[in-house]
Amino acid sequence: VWIFGYGSLVWRPGFEFTSRKVGFIRGYSRRFWQGDTFHRGSEKMPGRVVTLLEDCGACTWGVAYEVRGEQIPASLQYLNMREAVLGGYDTKLVKFHPQEKDAEEPIQALVYIATPQNPSYLGPASEEDIAAQIIVSSGCAGHNIEYLLRLADFMRYFCPQAEDKHLFSIEEALISILPCLCFTEESLEET
């Protein structure tokens, strides 16, 4: 079984796997439209994490993990709790295209996608509003800023040829807000 990750799974799968490949799926755009009140946020201050939006002309880059034998039930149980129960994600089968030049045919992979019907779905907002929400959110897996920056780093280093305007626009908005926050914190410490 192959499992495609396009958010925190690209750097922290949390399950054992046999192999991994960087690549993409077609027909979806990555969006910071899913709320998170556990891993990257709280009930009072939900974080924002990514989900996929059907978009026939787009492709989303990430990592596919191959799980075999005893890894299959353990990884699916873990992901069903992490994504489906806590996050409100549905599972779908997609065609994953490995990045390697000599790659074989596309691979069928499972992917978890949050839908607008789940209670944590936040939907669209401006890049500035999303960045402002990310800055103040933190959960049991860490600060929401880390999630955004790690995902941007993954794209920059593993998929430099790919564009993800939504992701990089939010990163830019976050960076433009951060100096203001640092100045405010220093001012508060001095008083």
Automatic annotation (TrEMBL):
Q: What is its main location?
A: cytoplasm
Q: Which GO terms describe its biological process?
A: apoptotic process; glutathione catabolic process; nervous system development; Notch signaling pathway; response to unfolded protein
Q: Which reaction does it catalyse?
A: glutathione = L-cysteinylglycine + 5-oxo-L-proline
Do you know which Pfam families this protein is assigned to?
ChaC
Gene Ontology cellular component terms for the protein in this record: cytosol; Golgi apparatus
GO function terms (MF aspect): gamma-glutamylcyclotransferase activity; glutathione specific gamma-glutamylcyclotransferase activity; transferase activity
Enumerate the UniProt keywords alphabetically.
Apoptosis, Cytoplasm, Golgi apparatus, Lyase, Neurogenesis, Notch signaling pathway, Transferase, Unfolded protein response
Keyword Transferase belongs to the record: yes
State the coiled-coil residue ranges: none
Give the EC number. 4.3.2.7
- Lineage, top-rank taxon, reads Eukaryota
Cell compartments where the protein resides: Cytoplasm, Cytosol; Golgi apparatus, trans-Golgi network
Q: Give the family, as the similarity comment puts it.
A: Belongs to the gamma-glutamylcyclotransferase family. ChaC subfamily.
Primary role: Catalyzes the cleavage of glutathione into 5-oxo-L-proline and a Cys-Gly dipeptide. Acts specifically on glutathione, but not on other gamma-glutamyl peptides. Glutathione depletion is an important factor for apoptosis initiation and execution. Acts as a pro-apoptotic component of the unfolded protein response pathway by mediating the pro-apoptotic effects of the ATF4-ATF3-DDIT3/CHOP cascade.
Protein name (Swiss-Prot/TrEMBL): Gamma-glutamylcyclotransferase
